[in-house]
Predict the 3D structure of the following.
Amino acid sequence: MKAAVLRAPDAVPEYAEFADPDPQAGYETVDLVAAGLHPIVRALASGGHYGSCGAYPMIPGVDAVARTREGTMVYTGLVRPPYGTFSERMAVPERMRFPLPPNADPVKIASGINPGLSSWMPLKARATELGALGTVLILGVTGMAGLLGVQNARLLGARSVIGAGRNPGALEHAEELGATTVALTGEKENDAKALARALDGAQPSIVLDYLWGSVAEAAFGALARRGLEEDTANIAYVQIGAMAGTDAALPAQLLRSRRIVISGSGAGAASIAEVIAQVPIYMQLIGDEKVVVSTQTFKLSSIAQAWTALSERARIVVVP
């Protein structure tokens, strides 16, 4: 079969022949309809992600919309390495087959499920826990995941959404979606002050951090408090991505002075059962256009061009 074949971690995938997958018990072979080129796809392919298999050659791709032998279009994933979803055919577990809603665009489903669930799941869990969302702070709002996070927070009834990022055009788009925005400068102290001004004394019920690194340190500064009285905040800080760096210094004073829980959300930390429960719900939101998903498509045969293309606000999707 034809596939996007990556032969080394620092290489660009090439359109080439690769052995057909051999489905094991509980798996079936399906045909590619559309697959998203998400940040995690690049991270896994580079070998830098904790989930990387480290074996080459390999086929990138973590999820896809595919067509079953019966002709049903399904959202799917969990392909076993070295196989991925950027191929004409893939073997997928039978439990990871979600029929698309009748009104759903398969390209938008392939584009939106991965980045959309990254915020939908922690926001949904937090809203259920608290009964209602207060202020939501999104670090890295200018990427597609962050822009979907604004929409998800609004759908779940957030009182206010504050989004921070650097791309001026994407910040304007976040404002159009209902966020108050903060333009990050890369200067930690200045960014901490800007975030604090945007919060204006309010304490977020949840922080969604797609950046980490120095931006997280700026956020820690903005969340700092002084005094010995009991803290009235209840902050969930969720680390999702690390576009600004893999390490951040966490002040001891922040942990001792605030009611704050810092946790991560990603493959390994997220419950597969919870993901499975939310996929049909989020597919319906996309199908009903309650969330806006932007896409840019490339043919599988043009995988080299897709891999090197730059598209921050639209998700690149590979189609047959």
